[in-house]
Fold:
Amino acid sequence: MFAKILIANRGEIACRVIRTAKAMGIKTVAVYSDADADAVHVQMADEAVRIGPPPSAESYLVIDNLLQAIKDTGADAVHPGYGFVSENAVFAEALAAAGVAFIGPGPLAIRAMGDKIESKKLADKAGVSTVPGYLGELADADEAIKVAGEIGYPVMIKASAGGGGKGMRVAWNDDEAREGFRSAVNEAKSSFGDDRVFIEKFIEDPRHIEIQVLADQHGNVIHLGERECSIQRRHQKVIEEAPSPFLDPETRAAMGAEAVALAAAVDYCSAGTVEFIVDKNRNFYFLEMNTRLQVEHPVTEYVTGLDLVEQMIRIAAGERLSLRQDDVTLTGWSLEARVYAEDPSRNFLPSIGRLIRYQAPTETAHVRVDSGVCEGAEISMFYDPMVAKLVTYGEDRAAAIDEMAQALNNFRIRGVGNNLGFLSATVDHPRFREGRLSTGFIAEEFGDGFTGGKLGDDDENRISAILLAFERQMAERRQTITGRLREAAATPASLELVVRSDHGTIAGQVSAIDGGYEVTIAGSTYQVIGACGAGVRLFAGTVNGVAMPVQIDRSGVYYWVSYNGVNRRVLVAAANVAEALDKMPVKEAADMSRFLLSPMPGLLSSVAVAVGEPVKAGQELAVIEAMKMENVMRAERDGVVAAIHAGAGDSLAVDQAILEFE
Structure:
């Protein structure tokens, strides 16, 4: 077995590998850029080595720097995690030349499957079903339009070396094909150093289902069932689960057999994933093979009871697989939600900044949090915006979803925009709970953007009862403050208050009882038991015996309340006080309609217009790159450019002016 493993990665996956290595008694080495000098993975490892400045192209992707770190620390094996050099055949060859084990497949398999064009040709030879398309490299946008017309719209333009949703665009017409080709090429070059792209038919209403495989150095290949990865945004997975609520045993067996056949055809050795697109009739087509550990591997670990990182390490050390295909069983259900630093209310634009608060749910047998951050950490513009992976388990799908809903309500992040509310609204959506999924789910159900979840009347009243109890306890606390004791009248036995928000006004009476408060709303009684009042930021008590993990922040005279995807500003006060506050003048915001403002921090890649140029609604104005994704800014209406306030290459802050119109 290896004595020391260097993890050629960062963030949560580096922490994940370190945990398993430590459990196996193996020493670990972390690498870090200047932006990650104080990162959690650096603190967890036995040793840490700086490998360069913040940009990944100058640090995590520099093979020479990684090789020097390996030499300096004496590591005898390297785990690449996912992304960065995890599917880099040159890196794997360099390790072999240095006599260092690569905890992953061999260079030939990486090359064969890492090139999406060549992998489809190999899959076809191995008898694996493939998506109809053009398997040649596109020369330019004109050829993209020509080929798309021959295949028939809609089409998917994809980076040959792509992954993680980068370098992918769906086009429904010639204009979108031209723009999609350009963006796919730029993202592919930025993220992978390879700007080759190809086109295939886009299957409408598809499901994205993948098969996990394991293969050792002795010719043994098995699969560990499937993962449903259909909940995606911009082709990047958001929520995954195992098993799939759609597959029947026959389809599962057929997909597994094809995945095993493909792995065997390329002499695969390690953990890997064969991805399929599945139509409504359960016809499935090969998409690609990821020759690495997947982000969503924890759901497979939950339902199989296996540690995939441990399996990868043992395989790389030359051990045989300890189980056969007949030994693989899928027990229970598991979900994973990716927690991102992004603002769902602003079209999911990435958010950067400091994590002022980071309080993950308590880990249990049914709740797991894979994260590489801590409170006070900085979310950087240089890397992927994922903050953590929240994974839950249940005896069945409904139980796993319930665990996820509760865990999301207990997950507290402040300081950066995040998608916790969106994830809560998604797992609570009736269509999701019914398992009616497709890769178009988010676009179809949140097509107008995410404006918050919805609560039923019972939940509205329970939350109001909690807030009324909070305000009652705050009133009692004010009676005990030194200097006010003689001034204030005693709190009445039953205090009458209103809860006012954009949802409406709810009136209630609050009385103290043993262990909490009794609240009456519209003739119904609610017993609020648990901590209330000053210092409480997450109510972890019950209302009429129902657990209600409601997040509550005080801002002046208002509360900010978060629960099940709802984030709402609420006033709790006596009725006459609420009426008086309604009459206060509201400061009007400055008119910024004449400006194109940057919706996110990022790099201004290009400006497509000039001063004095007329523009039409929908016309491209500028392109902003943030966290390796291109974002095209378009004109909302016709106008004329009056001034340009930023140029290509400038670093932009949120709401910084780029253009001004007459």
Summary: Residues 457-582 form a domain with the Glycoprotein, Type 4 Pilin fold (CATH 3.30.700.30). The CA atoms of residues 333 and 397 lie 5 Å apart. The chain has five domains: 4-103, 132-201, 207-445, 457-582, 595-661.
